[in-house]
Design a protein that fits this description.
mainly alpha, 70% helix, 0% strand, XRE family transcriptional regulator
Length: 87
């Protein structure tokens, strides 16, 4: 597509709407691109970033009812961690 040529040649910065459009065209999630290009934004090590990416992928495939329960569980874990840190 000629519209994307300037981005490919680094003449222009890709805007968020264009990024979303590309993801829709290729059938991928925007986070997949971000993880590949900047895993350091998600973790200190590549291994940790890969695990976070895997977790997000698993969550995306869950039905809403399971996501709801998982959010509650993760919130409880965070509360326990905060309580342990202050004790």
């Amino acid at each position: 597509m000629p519209v994307y040529g300037p981005y490919e040649r680094a003449f222009s910065s890709l805007t968020v709407p264009r990024l979303i459009h590309l993801c829709e065209l290729f059938g991928i999630q925007p986070l997949e691109l971000i993880f590949d290009l900047a895993p350091h934004l998600y973790a200190e090590t590549q291994e940790e970033a890969d695990e976070r990416r895997r977790l997000i992928g698993l969550i995306q495939d869950l039905p809403h009812s399971k996501v709801h329960h998982l959010v509650g569980l993760l919130e409880q874990v965070q509360l326990q961690d905060k309580a342990a840190q202050t004790a």
